[in-house]
Amino acid sequence: MRTMISLIKKDRNRRKNLILSAVLLSLFFLPGCDAIKISEVYEKGAVASASPIATEIGLNVLKSGGNAVDAAVAVGFALAVVHPEAGNIGGGGFALVRAGQEPEIRALDFREKAPAAATEQMYLDDSGAVIDQMSTVGANSAGVPGTVAGLYALWQEYGSIEWDALVAPAAELADSGFIVDDYFHQSLSRYRERLNQFEETSRLFFPNGSTPLVGEKFVQSDLAGTLYLVASEGRDGFYTGSNAKLIIAAMERHGGLIDSSDLAGYSTTWRSPVHFEFDGLDIYSMPPPSSGGIVMGQILKLLEPSDFSASSFGSAEFIHLFAEACRVAYADRAEHLGDPDFYNIPDNLLDETYLTHRRGLIDHEYAVSSETIKAGSIGGAESTETTHYSVVDENGNMASITYTINSSYGSKLVVDGGGYLLNNEMDDFSAKPGVPNLYGLVGSETNKIEPGKRMLSSMAPTLVLKNDEPYLTFGSKGGSQIISALAAVLLGLERFGLDPHEALATGRFHHQWLPDQLLLEEGAFDITVVQDLIRRGHDLVQEDVYSEIHLIRIKDGTMLPVCDPRSRGNGDGGF
Ligand code: DON
User: Quick check: 299 and 325 in contact, CB under 8 A?
Assistant: First the structure.
């Protein structure tokens, strides 16, 4: 039995304390305890996002008569200002929306695309080896951004108030500045060296050469200018004209591939969501080019027949079985999933006949070995950022949006004069079959780089209905960990009867087939659980997890927004 427990210490004390207090709170549920905020319930509208300021902007839109989609558009732009390590206009993402007179659930794909000049070999040297950092840093790592087109498409389809009224609050916030909090200060301090490698990025984040201090105002004039342009000209304000020129200038200066026709030709796509039933719930999530919906569906369906009544959520029995289901599901991710516009995705991945066969691969007692291709590592030096947010209104409209620039601060390259970061989403392609990306994920031909193609994602904004009525909207950040975290939280809520706060606060666990390691959230599990998992043959890694889930649960006519206690905090609100 190979056993490795690696204890990787990072500057995580603040987060660990938060998690520990949250777990304690979830055990004792002390009313009035201020370790984490226990959310209130609301009747007219609710928002859960990574930032209290962005949530407030979304709530203002709802209060002024906008619907959940209007508010989601406004929150998306606001996060680009106050949460620039992940919130963005230089990245892309996915939205699951339930809206309209006879509400239907649709998925919007505004994922970045590879530029037309991209090639399968673009990150390989002459010997065929992957060139270090080429797919993760700088102009060459950026896909054609989709966020502005995505938010615009959402508004065109479902918006009920003027477009500029949804963009203006973010533009004004960038213009007047927001007060730096501890989270942002720490984040900039941690990334200072990496952000300073580009002069334009350094100028934006470290005005006068110093890290903005807690309590200071952080003003982003160039970003304000871009947002005012988008407010007045819609998506064209970003993809054509002066802003397009700024992106192309950045590409020319730093050797990137995006050109004016990539920008002008960028398109979003409405897709049918992945739909499956679990314990009588109707679950709708993101289809390819995200793996999120299918892999989450597989994990839950593989486990659906299991009886967990004799085990608890954090027990070794449950974690083991969950990890084995993940192993089987993530193996399919690597082999079968990619951009459906370029590759025919098998249509039986959630069929019961297929799942019955796959369920047979799971050993209830011991870890099955994943075939070793090349082990990547879960996590590593680079922490990652993405952000998920959810909005619900009193008419049953729901918006669940996850968007990203991939790792924290994306490519680290700010578009000079535009005031925003470009993504490094190209790293989500498989640069070479079998070679792991930032998240340790390996891929095959299905996810190879091709011009105009979308890179495979794990993002999984999700909506859940119970008896055809809104029940839950949730999603997460965390790269490959998004899917397992969402599946586990859903099981926690539905099978183990956890309260939403408790379900989010409890320690996380993750397996993704390769590397063949079981990740346990550091400090969250008892030694007896750890020992039992080792006995079962798992290679354990204990470290911080990347996932951060923001959800809204709708029950008995009330909405309960809950933010992950690992996050910046208190981005839940309503009225
Ligand atoms: O699309 C994906 O799966 C990744 N680019 C998401 C990255 C992410 O969630 C980073 N957040 N922690």
Answer: yes
Euclidean distance between CA atoms 174 and 223, whole angstroms: 6
Tell how far the Cα of 192 is from the centroid of ligand 1, in angstroms: 21
Task: Give which of 463, 505, 455 is closest to 485, Cα–Cα.
Answer: 505
Which of 439, 456, 512 to mutate for ligand 1's pocket (most ligand atoms within 8 Å of CB)?
439
The H or E element spanning position 204 is helix 199-205
DSSP string across 160-198: -S-HHHHHHHHHHHHHH-EE--HHHHHHHHHHHHHHTTS
Each residue's pLDDT tens digit, 431-475: 998 888 888 888 778 999 999 999 999 999 999 999 999 999 999
Q: Side chain identity at 449, as an amino acid letter? A: I
At residue 187's C-alpha, the angle toward residues 182 and 192, to 5°, is 125
CA distance 184 to 211: 10
- In short, whether 546's Cβ falls inside 6 Å of ligand 1 is yes
**Alpha-carbon Rg of the chain, whole angstroms?**
22
Q: Report if pTM > 0.90.
A: yes
CA dihedral 345, 284, 53, 222 (to 10 degrees): 30
Q: Which one is catalytic: 386, 402, 446, 473? A: 386
Check if the beta carbon of residue 253 is closer than 8 Å to that of residue 107: no
pLDDT digits (tens, 9 = 90+) for 168-197: 999 999 999 999 999 999 999 999 999 999
Alpha carbon distance 477, 458 (integer Å):
9
Answer yes or no: 386 catalytic: yes
Q: How confident is the model at residue 568, as a pLDDT?
A: 82
Residue-level pLDDT at 385: 79
Burial class (CB in 10 A: 0-12, 13-18, 19+), 328: buried
pLDDT at residue 9 greater than cutoff 60 = no
pLDDT digits (tens, 9 = 90+) for 534-569: 999 999 999 999 999 999 999 999 999 999 999 987
| Distance in angstroms (rounded) separating the CA atoms of residues 73 and 250 | 27
Ligand 1, from 337, 384, 437, 441: best to mutate by most atoms within 8 Å of Cβ?
384
Q: Are 104 and 436 in contact (CB under 8 A)?
A: no
Please name the helix (run of DSSP H) or strand (run of DSSP E) that holds residue 474, with its range, or none.
strand 469-477
Whether the Cβ atoms of residue 231 and residue 243 lie closer than 8 Å to each other: no
